[in-house]
Task: inverse folding
């Protein structure tokens, strides 16, 4: 059973930064891709950022230039660095892995106050 554990969420003022972490219970290179998704109240879950096993990345248009996805092979951890946060970034952020994605974390709340 794969476990993905997110951390790093919290309350931040608009313009601030947060870094989310996703620790996996097995090698992150055992997944073809890993990503961060988010779901705001009353909205559908959406892809925020994704990184493939080969290192290719893609981002939602709304976060390009502000968010960066990265990974640490030794720590089996994927990160999401979020800068210049806006109130519309407020959501529960989920880490996901595999095709589909197949595996999901429990989510971490990010709240941006304006």
Result:
């Amino acid at each position: 059973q794969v476990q993905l554990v997110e951390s790093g969420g919290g309350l931040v003022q608009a313009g601030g930064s947060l870094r989310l972490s996703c620790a996996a219970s097995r090698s992150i290179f055992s997944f073809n891709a890993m990503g961060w998704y988010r779901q705001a109240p009353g909205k559908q879950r959406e892809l925020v950022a994704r990184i493939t096993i080969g290192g290719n990345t893609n981002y939602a248009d709304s976060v390009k230039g502000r968010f960066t996805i990265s990974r640490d092979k030794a720590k089996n951890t994927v990160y999401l660095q979020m800068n210049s946060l806006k109130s519309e970034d407020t959501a529960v952020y989920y880490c996901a892995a595999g095709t589909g994605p197949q595996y999901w974390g429990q989510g971490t709340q990010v709240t941006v106050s304006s």
Q: What stands out?
A: DSSP finds no helices and eleven strands in the chain. The radius of gyration is 13 Å.
